[in-house]
Amino acid sequence: MSTTASKETRAFQTEVKQLLDLMIHSLYSNKEIFLRELISNASDAADKLRFEATTDDALYEGDSDLHVFIDVDRDARTITVRDNGIGMNRDEVIENIGTIARSGTREFFEQLSGDQEKDAHLIGQFGVGFYSSFLVADRVTLTTRRAGLEKEHGVRWESKGDGEYVLETVEKESRGTEIVLHLREDADEFLDAFRLKAIIHKYADHIPFPIRMRGTAGEDGKAETETVNQASALWTRPKSELADEDYRNFYKHIGHDFDDPLAWLHQRLEGKYEYTLLLYLPKHAPFDLWQAESRHGVKLYVRRVFIMEANEDLLPRYLRFVRGVMDSGDLPLNVSREILQKSTAMDAMKKGATKRVLGLLEDLAKHEDGEDYALFWKEFGNCLKEGIIEDFANREAIARLLRFSSTTSDEQTVSLEDYVGRMLDGQDTIYFITADSLAAAKHSPHLEVFRKKGIEVLLLHDRIDEWLVSHLTEFDGKKLQSIAKGELDLSGIGDKEEAEKEKQEHEEAVKAARPAIKKLKEALGDKIKDVRTTDRLTESPACLVSDQFDISGNLERILKQAGQDVPEVKPILEINPEHELVKRLARMRSKDKVADFADILFDQAVLAEGALPEDPAGFVRKVNALLAG
Questions:
Q1: Exposed e or buried b for every residue in 493-510, given b needs 16+ CB within 10 A?
Q2: In this predicted model, what pLDDT tens digit does every residue of 13-54 receive, in sequence order?
Q3: Are residues 134 and 46 part of one domain?
Q4: Helices 344-365 & 371-390, crossing angle to 10 degrees?
Q5: Are 216 and 331 contained in the same domain?
Q6: Does some domain include residue 349?
Q7: Which of 104, 152, 344, 474 is deepest in the core (most CB within 10 A)?
Q8: Would 58 be classed as within a structural domain?
Q9: With contact defined as beta carbons under 8 Å apart, do 132 and 34 qualify?
Q10: CB 75 within 8 A of CB 165
């Protein structure tokens, strides 16, 4: 690093260099977004100044006309984007431009595939912001001063995007930020003022601050400035004035996304509290959706003055994928997060916004083709499941939106309403099984009697499902029951005469299996809580079952994998009294053979659960000995 008293050359953070390279190569066909991103940043800077100035009017420095100015110099081959917003000090320049200080950055880079089209989506979700300048410029100069600092605290940043940047202290008379783009040879199209105006109309017409450009020269030879956008907050305008394209472009501005949104809602609510909602559902999950520190995408305004972003007081955390704006007419401009938490107006807004987002999802789910909701569920379904756990007041509405795989469909398209509508005569329970994969759930021996009787079973194979079913215990008056916990009674479902005949045959087999039960209890000892016969198996000799009020075996494995201390829970071994291996065990006399046989039956049941036996090598040895005869 070379340095003088006020000037130094610094290296970009490694991730910034990676992002610049990826962005330039993946987004080369969509270069015009550089202007959208720079205007968006300038608008944010103006928003922040207006908010801070509500408690410190001196920050305006006598100039409260917040705006963005864009200028083109064809001879110098430059585009200048200038704002009179909050500006930055030296440390903020280093933090915001020299580094990517964001959780999940490493995970973002791990997701990149090398496929330019797919990576472009990810880069859009990550947010390229200022770095998009290098799509059209081979050198960028940024000069800034934070509002409230003296003119000698200006900062100049310059880079060619080659891994280094120069940082220098300079004098800057006015607050705010000026960015000068020295255009590449292949970026001549952006030296045309009409081309820039078209981009502004496309992406930034809704920016609530004037975007000004130099107009045509008058008789005196001087060019007047003209405002080239509508400069009114889009969400305050009547829906009748807005086209779908207006909504889509506003989403791309606030969501920093390259894709159109999946759906949106725009409502003004009046009553005890007045507020406006403009909320969007994205098509794709952001890269940091599962990061604890992930950014939320809803901005809070009070009478069109930006207040804050990324706050769970605006929407519950399980709706963190929603992007958009909430504008209140009832909150004070100097609102703090502490005030928000105690505000009845904010509480009403949060409840109202939550219900309307859930209503939007319900409308999406009812759409004829179902494709949009299927896309939403694939991206955000597990977030919605969190709502069952977190949001008791809306649990019923959320439950209607859930989708699962089942024994009728591998795809997660089965709703609880679908399931209830297909229930058999005499069935009053929604049956499910949890497992760590769809394959493990599909091939579980617990399903055997359900397949035989034609009873549908939900196949729950996401980790969160274990917590989901502990909070969602019934739907539409029907109890949810795990087929791998407690005892099972299906006698009231299906043909009564056939069921009675099967019951008599089963009771005879149970009597014959008593010696096998006794031998298994003695051989397995404290590895199990109990051994009992079952009628849930038709093909397999044995399976493991959790007691009604114990945690499931799947949840126990999940907790152990996460490094959690789990109290020892012993399973119940259920055996199929009609299976040939059980009958064979009942006839055995050698204690050694019985012990090996018991271990094999137990370990087979463990494997069927998707887990591994405690001693895999021992299991293989015993199976080989059994096969050898």
A1: bbeeeeeeebeeeeeebb
A2: 666 677 677 666 665 567 888 898 899 889 989 989 998 998
A3: yes
A4: 140
A5: no
A6: yes
A7: 104
A8: yes
A9: yes
A10: no
